[in-house]
Design goal:
10 helices; about 25% strand; Jelly Rolls; five-stranded antiparallel β-sheet; gibberellin 2beta-dioxygenase; about 350 residues; Oxoglu/Fe-dep_dioxygenase_dom; alpha+beta
Length: about 350
């Protein structure tokens, strides 16, 4: 079945459910072919699954209520009219495709990721693999680009500049979203979240993933080959943009996986583990994955906004209102060290949850 992402996302709803009073949440019906049942599959979908992808127009006045609702219900939403210049997006995509089209020996000159650089198939140090190659870059664009000089020559400086321009724009958008979320939560300190990304010591990273076409992406049992395995993002917020090739899926509370139609003009935002902790579980860190595409390359660019290594991560006191904390306090360095020892699909926050007294 052919899916038109413009139709899915931008057709206004005629009947909005009572629990979603949001003019910017268009009605989206996901067909059965785009729903992957959890194992074991206990039912056969004969009817379309109705799923509401929160769509936030950042040019509209005061979308904070919609943003908070999206973070509470899904930990995931799409933004339009985001202010990131299309010229910067297009040039960075062009530069990235230029790099990934190089012969493997040339790309490997930019690796291995230690932690930054080029990697292929191997995701992290603990055995996770996927149908993906990637560049992992520091957001401090003054450093870490020496590996590219031997590949790009004089063009390496232009690559660095394009990445820098893109990151400035995307970071600005991420901070604006975080400040609107703080307003929506009635946090007196509006920059309670965004200041962690703005800090000079912010441990943020930028990742460019390339998923080559995989003609044999459908295995014999009918399940799709995984491009990037299921996981949550450990940081505060993730800002994702991809080309118009499908592959991204998110997991709903019932365990079903929903394919998200691509939209190369928009951004998708993920709540990260750290923001889930800071809101004491009110916001949900979304579990997601990427499946391989049989015929087209998929390119995604993700800004992971993280706090300084020494930052203490704990529920904000102003949000507790007499509630017990669900998590023990930890530094970002502690959590980072912990998730580097884990597998992608692990519940990494489980180690930091407070165990209720029996």
């Amino acid at each position: 079945m052919s899916i038109n992402s413009q139709t899915l996302f931008d057709t206004p709803t005629t009947a909005t459910p009572p629990h979603l009073h949001n003019p910017y949440l268009p009605f989206i019906t996901i067909p059965p072919s785009m729903v992957a049942l959890s194992k074991p599959a206990l039912q056969h979908l004969s009817k379309p699954t109705t799923f509401y992808v929160p769509l936030i127009d950042l040019s509209k006045r005061d979308p904070k209520t919609q943003l908070v609702k999206a973070c509470e219900e899904f930990g995931f939403f799409k933004v339009i009219n985001h202010g990131v210049p299309v010229e910067i997006i297009s040039e960075l995509e062009s530069q990235a495709f230029k790099f990934f089209s190089l012969p493997l020996p040339d790309k490997e000159k930019a690796g291995p990721p230690d932690p930054f650089g080029y990697g292929s198939k191997k995701i992290g140090p603990n055995g996770d693999v996927g149908w993906v190659e990637y560049l992992l870059l520091t957001t401090n664009t003054e450093s870490g680009y020496q590996k590219f000089k031997s590949i790009f020559g004089e063009a390496a400086e232009r690559f660095r500049c394009v990445v820098n321009e893109y990151l400035i724009a995307v970071k600005k958008m991420a901070c604006e979203i975080l400040e609107m979320l703080a307003d929506g939560l009635k946090i007196q300190q509006r920059n309670a979240f965004s200041k962690l990304l703005m800090d000079e010591e912010s441990d943020s990273v930028f990742r460019v993933n390339h998923y080559p076409p995989c003609p044999e992406s459908q295995e014999s049992n009918g399940r799709s080959l995984i491009g990037f395995g299921e996981h949550t993002d450990p940081q505060i917020i993730s800002v994702l943009r991809s080309n118009n090739t499908s592959g991204l899926q998110i997991s709903l509370e019932d365990g079903n996986w929903i394919s998200i139609p691509p939209d190369q003009t928009s951004f998708f935002i993920n709540v990260g583990d750290s923001l889930q902790v800071m809101t004491n579980g009110r916001f949900k860190s979304v579990r997601h994955r990427v499946v391989a595409n049989s015929s087209k390359s998929r390119l995604s660019m993700i800004y992971f906004g993280g706090p300084p290594l020494t930052e203490k991560i704990a529920p904000l006191a102003s949000l507790m209102k007499g509630e017990d904390s669900l998590y023990r306090e930890f530094t970002w360095f502690e959590y980072k060290k912990s998730f580097y020892k884990s597998r992608l699909a692990d519940n990494r926050l489980g180690l930091f949850e407070k165990i209720a007294a029996s």
